[in-house]
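Collaborator request, handled under Task 6.
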Amino acid sequence: MTYTTEHGDEAVTSHTLTVQERVRRLIHSRLGPDASVEFMEDLAGGYTEASVAKCDVASGGSPGLDGQYIVKTTPLTGKERQRTAHEHFIGALGTFTEQHVPKLVLSAEDDRFAIDLYEIAGGGLRGVHAAEVAGSAQFRAACETVSHDLLTAQLVSSTGRKVMTALEVLEAWLGVGFLDSGRGKALREARQLAGVDGPWFHLSGQVLPDPLSLLAEENELTLQDDIALLGVCHGDLHLRNILLDRTRQHHGSYWLIDVNWSSPAPLLYDQAYLETAAVLTI
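Structure tokens returned to the collaborator:
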């Protein structure tokens, strides 16, 4: 794939484009070549190719955009596109999403990346930043508030309950065959380095179950069952997908972006995922 640069006739391949160039071209593919796209500030990024930034977009025509937006860029994985999951999340959680999920105004993708543009109502984006770069006090308060508020909304909109084994819950969250994926192999290596060789392990004086052993082989934990509440989940609730506003003192001033799941799943995955992300960030 080749493109003509904005400053001449030189063609460049898709693999030599920077992330910002890709974002600009994807926005142009939806809004037209005359649309103005200016990047203002990176809000998070650096660990992976995924990034969150503020940008100023101005265009005529339809759809027409004019203002400051949040742009989330993620490597293309072949998973369900974000708009479907976003719309399902909004439809299921009602009032919560009206306050805490920004409007998704544009989605586009090329052969390597997908982008999503979000509009936060109620003013400019001067004080908006990702939770992963917040100060410690705001960081902890945000994790607690988001976990509480989201779970309350999820319980109210729960789609039912089901008796499930611990293995079934993990497979619903991680997917069947998780251990054979890249992430599963990395976790197995970490488990081996930590000296965990059974269904239980000791940490800081506590005896804890090893979730990977549930996926690897049948043991005393595998077949234990209980009632699981089902409902809509975010699916990727880490600190880069929580936006805070340093100019607003109220702890409820936050927004969730990049919803990943559109099918009902056992609840509490989001809270466990966020807690893990917080522990790894501290």
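The cover message to the collaborator said: "The chain has two domains: 2-127, 129-281. Residues 1-15 have pLDDT under 50 and may be disordered. Please let us know whether this matches your experimental observations."
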